[in-house]
Amino acid sequence: xxxxxxxxxxxxxxxxxxxxxxxxxxxxxxxxxxxxxxxxxxxxxxxxxxxxxxxxxxxxxxxxxxxxxxxxxxxxxxxxxxxxxxxxxxxxxxxxxxxxxxxxxxxxxxxxxxxxxxxxxxxxxxxxxxxxxxxxxxxxxxxxxxxxxxxxxxxxxxxxxxxxxxxxxxxxxxxxxxxxxxxxxxxxxxxxxxxxxxxxxxxxxxxxxxxxxxxxxxxxxxxxxxxxxxxxxxxxxxxxxxxxxxxxxxxxxxxxxxxxxxxxxxxxxxxxxxxxxxxxxxxxxxxxxxxxxxxxxxxxxxxxxxxx
Length: 308
Ligand code: DGL
Fold this sequence. Notes:
Elements (H helix, E strand, L loop, with lengths): L5 E5 L5 H10 L5 E5 L11 H16 L5 E4 L2 H14 L4 E2 L2 H11 L4 E6 L1 H6 L1 H9 L4 E6 L1 H12 L5 H12 L4 H14 L4 E5 L7 H8 L4 E4 L1 H14 L12 E5 L3 H12 L6 E3 L2 H5 L22
The structure holds D-glutamic acid.
D-glutamic acid binds next to helix 3.
């Protein structure tokens, strides 16, 4: 049993879709969430730069005693999961492998579509993860950066759910409309006959209904949030580090941007009020000391053993 928080981070508010699932699946677990809003978006950045951000934030969270880290950002997972696992003493879980696993379970014709940021697509992380699970599956990828902007814009528009905003306002305000943009992005995937579509960005579950409508019936839309939350639970259970039943879970939020805005937008994503948000200046994160990566991860060879 262990009542330390789970550290979760993302480039901003998108990772709250993963936190929402963690809260649902693991209601006794405390969460310390870090949204790097000041340096958002990660999607168009160089992967080396994003890896550096992931290591800084992971170090900052590790210094605050978390029992496990979740990289709730596909771009940061693609860029920095391995480096983070080699750097930190606690388990680090990303969102790519759980999403790929859910897609491999769901597909029947083994043609899987992926929509994600440019960085995630460029890394090839999803294609590798899918092929590790099923070498005969094919991943067809499209970078959809405008979907990220649409979610950000939708969250900033008045009250109501994002889906209501798409349904009521997108045809009026946005030129080209959401459905025109979606058609351009999704038509090539439809033409190759995908039967499963991975939402490779933590913003996208917020527009899953609209994406489902745009991609059409017969294509299963997969988000990694639920599968990631289950992985977190399973890892903690195996390590005997689940919070005790009846633990009063504490949910704390930190942003490098504006705390009030993070609270307002984040409450819409979580569908519950976010009351405790603190701003950590980006200079503090840039100054954090990142531990050396383990170089002994494969030094344990003994007689008859191969370390690979
Ligand atoms: N949440 C990020 C992801 O999952 C996308 C937003 C960004 O570009 O920072 O990749």
